[in-house]
Amino acid sequence: MKIIVTGGAGFIGSSFVRQALRNPALEIVNIDKLTYAGNLENLESVANNPRYRFVQADLCELEGLRRIFADTKPDAVVHFAAESHVDRSIFAPQPVFETNLRGTFNLLETMRADRVARFIHVSTDEVYGSLEAPLEADEQFPLQPSSPYSAGKAGSDLLALSYHKTYKLPVIVTRASNNYGPCQFPEKLIPLMITHAFDDKPLPVYGDGMQIRDWLYVEDHCRAILTLLEKGRDGEIYNIGGNRSLPNKTVVEQILAITGKPASLIEYVTDRPGHDRRYALTSEKLHRETGWSPNMDFERGLKATVDWYRSNPEWIAHVRSGEYQHYHDKNYANRNRELGAIAKR
């Protein structure tokens, strides 16, 4: 099977590529624009694999995308490419809608002309919005996105599903909870806290730190997608959760314990505008139809993640350079002032 993977140089995409190539029956063509979070270092271990090919391209350029499909003739597409950071979507919403909506539209239009056997659109539990305990979102739960990022993903989910209903494209939508693991760009909670702890820098925690998230190890997520490539049903939505819900504060405290750093490094900062309090979903449908369940428990996965970052200081130094550092200096150092201004509007 020949699979086009979009965003395959990013965190989840690169994990999927590495895992997929363990199967000798799979061939991967990776399309990535290589924006700030796309890093080919994540794929060094497979760069010379004869069943792997990288193409640098922008999904927003329709004609170029059509040429890639005509050349590749894929059997399936797994669509990871997205602007995925909520803070960035608050400061600058336009790239979110260009990539997450226009990019998805261009993929769907390309596949309408060049039919594939399966299209998996990778989405997020954030489209369900904040849920009061003990509610858990199943696949029929109403969409209540709170940020430009989650709204963009909700829109692209519905667009993909509409192409199944209208054009009979073989679309599957997946909605996963918070991923963590090796190679995650250090603007997200877990890698940010790990790298700050290594450097004895303050660990910035939004609000009171009691926002609750379900945590899913990235390799378990990718295994679920590979399972759905084989066993999923067209036109369906599948939630993918890690079955481990924790407050952000607890996650940060566990990172400090693993790294041997003091709790005094925690710094509570102005909360994010529209910050969802609790995400929760059920993966019962996925388990019932395919037998998938997460293998990695959170404590073991978190320690493995800390160990990976400790063993890869060069990777950290590289991703902290250039555009990332510019963004960090401009928007993180002044974030209290900027977020406060947004919240007052």
Descriptive report:
Helices cover 44% and strands 17% of the residues. Strands 3-2-1-4-5-6-10 form a 7-stranded parallel beta sheet, sandwiched between helices. It has a 3-stranded mixed beta sheet with strand order 7-9-11. The chain has a two-stranded parallel sheet with strand order 8-12. Helix 2 (62-72) packs across helix 4. It has helices at residues 11-20, 62-72, 86-91, 94-113, 148-167, 189-198, 218-231, 248-259, 284-290, 298-311, 313-319, 323-332, 335-344; strands spanning 2-6, 27-32, 52-56, 76-79, 118-124, 171-176, 178-180, 203-206, 212-217, 237-240, 245-247, 266-269. It contains 13 helices and 12 strands. Helix 1 (11-20) links the parallel strand 1 and strand 2 (27-32). The protein is globular. The termini are far apart. With 345 residues, the chain is α/β, with parallel strands linked by helices.
Strand order of the largest sheet: 3-2-1-4-5-6-10
Gyration radius (Cα, Å) is 19 Å
- With helices defined by DSSP (H or I, 4 residues minimum), what is the helix count? 13
Helicity, as a percent range: 40-55%
Largest β-sheet summary: 7 strands, parallel
Question: So what's the oligomer here?
Answer: single chain
Uncertain residue segments: 323-345
| Proportion in β-strands | 15-25%
Question: What's the order of the H and E elements?
Answer: EHEEHEHHEHEEHEEHEEHEHHHHH
Shape: globular
Spatial gap, N to C terminus:
51 Å
* Strand segment tally: 12
Q: Summarize model confidence as the mean pLDDT.
A: 92
- Class derived from helix and strand content: alpha/beta
